[in-house]
Design brief:
Elements: E1 2-7, E2 21-24, E3 29-31, E4 48-52, H1 58-61, H2 67-73, E5 78-83, H3 85-95, E6 108-111, E7 115-118, E8 122-129, E9 135-142, E10 145-150, H4 162-165, E11 170-174, H5 182-188, H6 193-202, E12 208-211, H7 225-231, E13 235-237, E14 243-245
Parallel strand pairs: 3-4, 4-5, 5-6, 10-11, 11-12, 12-13
Antiparallel strand pairs: 1-2, 1-14, 2-3, 7-8, 8-9, 9-10
Helix pairs in contact: 6-7
């Protein structure tokens, strides 16, 4: 199964990365809808798209306003946006407010269920994360394939969601700051390199890809890959348009 990273930074895009957006083309599943969503049309395969939002911060939802172009490039019979009810209300009331965006995007808003069935026999579940405004993480399981997506939270080796990600084939976890900014990561509800690698090891995941990278410097990422790999050897840095098999 193939995951395509359409956007791998947070807060705002830079010349190298767009904001959070991940796509599983063969299943029509998208995780978050940041600025990277403008790329989705040329990679979609089927007639339906399910978008699952971790939260409603703008860097994760602004791509919903790009749906007109996405559907022009790849016609879709159905687009459903899944998120916590309060997040959907905020999106509908504010992001889709006529003074901000004069035409409501062509999609259905659906409160996130405890368990969502996916194409190909998969199941998506979610779990709470700590971050201002509230965030959820996702676990997706198919027969023989599994992944977890965790963003906008502070990683620690003993976090409450450890058991929810245990043993997945692929963990995508945010890594916004370097270890030298650990105190700032704690204050802002984000993660730095070493605790993310320690968490991947503790959860016995098979592969770790770091996403939601600080956009401030497009040339030098704040991720110390050698340090991360000393703790968890199968660590990779996510890049826009990178394809990940799981």
């Amino acid at each position: 199964m193939r995951l395509l990273l359409l956007g791998t930074t947070g807060y705002h895009p830079n010349d190298r990365r767009q904001t959070a957006c991940l796509l599983i083309p063969e299943c029509g599943v998208m995780l978050d809808a940041g600025t990277g969503m403008y790329r989705a049309g040329r990679h979609l395969r089927g007639p339906e798209l399910d978008i699952f939002l971790t939260h409603a911060h703008l860097d994760h939802v602004i791509g919903l306003t790009y749906l007109f172009d996405v559907r022009y490039v790849h016609p879709l019979q159905r687009v459903t946006v899944h998120a916590e009810a309060a997040k959907l209300e905020a999106i509908d009331r504010h992001l889709f407010a006529e003074p901000l965006f004069p035409k409501r995007p062509p999609c259905e808003l659906r409160p996130l269920a405890d368990k969502v069935e996916l194409a190909g026999g998969g199941v998506l579940t979610h779990f709470p994360l700590e971050h201002p405004g509230g965030v959820v993480g996702f676990r997706l399981d198919w027969p023989g394939h599994s992944l977890a997506y965790v963003t906008d939270t502070t990683a620690r080796p003993d976090v409450s969601y450890l058991e929810r990600i245990r043993g997945v084939d692929l963990l995508l976890h945010e890594c916004y700051f370097s270890d030298s900014w650990a105190e700032w990561a704690e204050k802002t509800g984000h993660s730095c390199t070493t605790p993310v690698a320690q968490l991947a090891r503790a959860a016995n995941v098979k592969r770790l890809v770091l996403v939601h990278i600080n956009p401030l410097d497009a040339e030098e990422d704040p991720v110390d890959l050698p340090a991360a790999r000393a703790i968890f050897p199968r660590t990779e840095l996510g890049e826009d348009l990178m394809e990940v098999e799981f």
